[in-house]
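Lab notebook page, bench 4
Experiment: in silico fold of construct C2
Operator: M.H.
Input chain length: 392 residues
Purpose: comparison with the prior construct
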Amino acid sequence: MQGQARLAAGRTNEGATPFGRSHTLDFLRGLAIAGVMAIHVSQSFPSNIHAVDFTFVCGWVGVNVFYFVSAMTMCLMWTQRTSEANPIRKFYIRRFLRIAPLFWLAIPLYLVVNGTGPSTNAPDGIGPLQVILTATFLHGFWPDSVNSVVPGDWSIAAEMIFYLVFPFVITAFGSRRHLYLALAIVLHLVNVCLFKPWAVALFSAYYGPGNEAFVWNALHISFLNQLPIFLVGCALFFSLRDGFAKSDATIFAGFIALSFVADRATGSHEFHYLVINLVLGAGVAGCIRLAIRWWPLEALGRNSYSMYLSHFAVIYGLRQIWPLTDGLVSLLIAYVVTAALSYLVARATWHLVERRAQDLAHRLTASTAKSASRAETVATANIALNGRSAGA
């Protein structure tokens, strides 16, 4: 395991990585949350201009940008802490305390705002099962738990399951980026050819006629369909750090060809989703390589998690009091107001919740290092003392 950790560390310790500063990663997070807010604002405040509404709807790719940035950030954090004691335990503590506190606060908030009755995402309503699965981050594995308790929580489910498996994947693969791509290809094909056809039939029968679209969408946003994005993000991290090779392009081309054949054979309709994600990945890598930054988006990016959770409530509240009729002006004003209010909420939750959770994470993960340091100091002192005694 230590050998794989050193392999993953690679050039990071030499300072040859393009990830030396987080400005571009913050920029990308800001871009992602801007896109996510765009689609949801346009759904509640449509301009009724097809081209404009379509442009705003394309903001759905923001979640996928989050996935790429998350994978790269995890790789960066891991490679910078290769000498840390108990890295897996500390990784879980940091990630859990980064995500869980705000998410758990969002659960009762949205149960009050949206109620527990039947909805598009929960045809039979919300019960204890949906709440328990959501609170334990397992909601991504059951269709009517996805997006039913907390709006947009499908991406939180995918993130948390990725965090669960990430330490084992990077420990096993190290910096060998072709292994990440190979696993991404295998999982994509398993999902398209085996899992999804079986799951569609199973859940369509379970929920009954008329719920086919609901089932298909739940499986489309399931973790198994999202995991290849994270794995491609890990491969891109090491490609950016260590340099791209012709073999990378060959593997990506093979990935696209295999996905096309599988899509045609099964009718899974996931080929276009894969291609869009690979294009997004190239864009994310390009932004990092060019060190693109813009401070307004960086500010949003540093607060993107809270803004993601809160902007649904902000939109709901605005919709209740909005004085303007639907149109372009209404859409643009609603977007600016939503972004501003969500940012203010995020700043408040940072001081009230997130900062405290991160301080706790720091204390929990630093204690072992301090104990180990003290033990090492004592051991060194004893060795020196014994040496002096022997010399005397």
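Observations: The longest helix spans residues 328-391. The CA atoms of residues 191 and 224 lie 7 Å apart.
Next step: discuss at group meeting.
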